[in-house]
Design a protein that fits this description.
The structure is a homodimer. By secondary structure, chain A is mostly helical. The first copy, chain A, is built from seven helices and no strands. Chains A, B: It comes from Azospirillum doebereinerae.
Chain lengths: 236, 236
Amino acid sequence: MKTSAPHIVSAFEDALKRLKSAIVQMAGAAETQLDQALTCLTQRNPELAREIVLSDARLDSFEHEIEAHCMRLLVLRQPVADDLREVIAALKIAGSLERIGDHAANSAKRAAAVGIFPDSAPLAGLPKLGRLVRERLTSVIDAYVDTDSEAALRIWRTDDEVDALYTSIAAEIERSAAATPDQFAAHMHLMMIAKNLERIGDHATNIAEVVYFVSTGQPLLDERPKADRSCDPAEG
Amino acid sequence: MKTSAPHIVSAFEDALKRLKSAIVQMAGAAETQLDQALTCLTQRNPELAREIVLSDARLDSFEHEIEAHCMRLLVLRQPVADDLREVIAALKIAGSLERIGDHAANSAKRAAAVGIFPDSAPLAGLPKLGRLVRERLTSVIDAYVDTDSEAALRIWRTDDEVDALYTSIAAEIERSAAATPDQFAAHMHLMMIAKNLERIGDHATNIAEVVYFVSTGQPLLDERPKADRSCDPAEG
């Protein structure tokens, strides 16, 4: 439902399409970063970790380009209503994708660090958590491409799956740490990887909020379901 | 140096002033959250921690209000150049302040969780790191209020102080954990608090980038100094 003021449709719609395709391209780069970080998790390859850290700069420049693109659109086209929301959405999604790249790179570095421990700690459910947040990232980008508010809402509502898995993995890592007290550092890295993956899940949920907003014009104001009790003193 | 296209100066400048003062008010709320989280760190008071977590919702609604304010400004005033940068800056700073509130709330929860351990782990340099990032947050908001690019650059360039302190605290926590292997969970919480504070420092640096951009019209593109080697396999 387009309610924006009249504009030279073809030129502006072209510009919005280019913006959207820049976001999709950036999302592809973030997904690749995440895939490689997950590979690093099972292979614990310092060489691959270094590559991932280096290619993180690519996401930074993607974000700068998208921001510049949005600024140009705002100045030249002065969009309103739906079109303005599209531009603001692109700014916000690019910010989330950049942070996802950071979390992936940090996870890869830590996976390589765990790799140097001779009898390294168990991975617990980390690859499973990685796959879950990877799927959610793909789904939310699909929802963005299709401007699909229902899909966005579905993703937003199932955020607690990530939190529940994260909480159980955190407990598993704590148990493993208690059983092998000489390997604090390795368990620390595993815990930080779990946190990074959970944060990637959060960013996918944030993107779902943005997609919902851009599709419906309404913000998602309810409290998101929360199942992360990893800080609960009872579980501390 | 104002280079924007002509507009009804008084009304628009008033609106921008109101936007800026909304950001300053939100920053005040984020600073209060952080102060209370730091109090929690030394007092480890579960009651105070719960209050901090509850008042985090205030920062979320601040962010929504500022975003709505920015959207209205973009639609009604169609700003360009400096003025457009001001609006985009407000959007980005509000996003960072909201994240700062999250990190403060998470730190408070974890501090309370550490508190339940009878022989709790040492705090290492956490209060010092807390004060450092608190000062940096105040400075960067001052730089924003004064549109002071030099101050923003100074803050941006000294980001490595936070990273260096974080790295040394992480090492201290690891040593303490190795010495008291039955207290993995407490050390884990301390490490996560350190990470939260370091992230708050990162957000202050991100705000410095935004202030620099809004003051000069130029992005800060160089690599930020990095002294965080906490993931270095050598320190793993």
